[in-house]
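queue> holo job accepted (zinc ion)
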Amino acid sequence: MMGIDFERADSGFSDDLRIAATGAVRGLSQLVLRADVSGMPLEWIDYKEAARLYTQEQVAYTCGTRLYTLVGGVNALSGRRTVLEINSIVATVGHTGNPGSTRHDYVPPLNNQTLFRRDAHICLYCGLRFATRELSRDHVRPFSQGGLDTWTNVVTACRRCNNQKASRTPEQARMQLVAVPFTPTYAEYIFLKGRRVLADQMEYLLAHFPRSSPLHARIQRWLS
Ligand SMILES: [Zn+2]
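queue> job finished
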């Protein structure tokens, strides 16, 4: 399975979203996926935070592939050099504070970046794909008619479709949605917040999505 480069997707380089597993890791910017001890995905962390978790012995086990080999100083007692190998997915012990693992009614914060990614950068009216700068947040039921700013009432729309729809419902504007808006689960939200999601990280996150998640099909579209 191939990974996905969200940053390129946001800027509209739609023909080059695919990245190979760890071969495409550039510098130290690739983030590590942190999970709790039960395997529930928690957050993205950088290599420094991952190194801190390793050295504080908070890493219960690791998955995925090796991202970094960090070489530290020489231990005065043993005379050995510290070498830390950091994997793409680390499961950690202790309390998590993860709202998604304890609450089933968790609602992730709504922002345009994750909204556009939820909808795979596709305008849900004309069905075409756009770069972030050409997209907007449309309220299916408009504010003026009592619509709320919630995940299930907002969709990605290109500027042209948004202008055409104006302050009307899809029925009033005689426009049809190509997909139903949904609230991402915590694992889906972590995925949508990713920068470059490596193949193994994506596979791991996908396993935590609901079976019925529309993201399964959208990821296939992203990668096709
Ligand atoms: Zn459109």
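queue> The chain has two domains: 3-97+187-223, 112-173.
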